[in-house]
Amino acid sequence: MSLTSEWIRFGNSGEHLGYLAQMDGGQSRPGLVLIQEAWGVDEHIMDVARRFARAGYAVLAPDLFARDGQRPEALKAGRMEELKAFVDGLPPGAWGNPAEREAALAGLPQDQGRRVGESYNLLFGGLLGNPGQFLPPLLAAAAHLRGQVPSSRGRRVGSLGFCMGGGLSGLLASQDGELAAAVIFYGQGLPKDKIPGLACPLLAFHGQTDRRLVDALPQFEADMKQAGKALEVRVYPGAGHAFFNDTRPSYQAEAARDAFARALAFLNGSLS
Questions:
Q1: d(CA 119, CA 125)
Q2: Given CA atoms 160, 164, 168, 170 in this order, what sign does their dihedral have?
Q3: For the chain, what is the domain count?
Q4: How many angstroms separate the CA atoms of 31 and 18, rounded?
Q5: pLDDT tens-digit profile of 46-95?
Q6: Rounded to an integer, what distance in angstroms lies between the CA atom of residue 71 and that of residue 55?
Q7: Is-contact 204 233, C-beta < 8 A?
Q8: Is the same domain home to 209 and 151?
Q9: 153 and 54 within one domain
Q10: Do 224 and 243 sit in the same domain of this protein?
């Protein structure tokens, strides 16, 4: 038995693009919608898709930036890698300081600075501010796994996402009454008005030093408890944002190893 992976089109008219990974052999298996970070369905997300596929899931990672199979030029893979390298190279604190960020951009070679600035402005200047726009491909991905992928047809489907995808994993769970489990890796909790729509348990992972998200956890936990919804939270001491991403300086091996094992156990219990 070997792993297969491919880019597919899905949706009512094939309007969405996604990366599908699964083991071959024709065996029935649960489905998992894997939701990207802000960097898109990059090599890291595809690698994670293959990891979960080897663990026994049919994994579909929808490309949320693609429209009719194509990304805008500024969000194509090479441009996103260039932007990610720029962000990873910023001095501590510069990410949240526009003046320092602009100074770092100005220090790049002219063409590179133009490209990185264009990608940054498109991505963080508005595209990520409207998470609802990503629901159609996410809902379609879950439906595709339930109804169109032979190996996962008729099986339970869950979701798992990182950063922006973490928040979207919870949002998808609030909108898809058939979703059986949702995992949030360092993503925003659900707004209070979306919580009543949840029909499945949530599992959330965070790094202790990721203060923006960790400081908001008590309110999210209280809102979930008040609504009678199931939420399990794990906060890793000494870890920060994106601790699971082994392609970035933020990677924290012990937290990543533990979170992967817990996510697998949670999905196994909810989707099998």
A1: 9
A2: positive
A3: 2
A4: 14
A5: 999 999 999 999 999 999 999 999 999 999 999 999 999 999 888 877 77
A6: 30
A7: yes
A8: yes
A9: yes
A10: yes
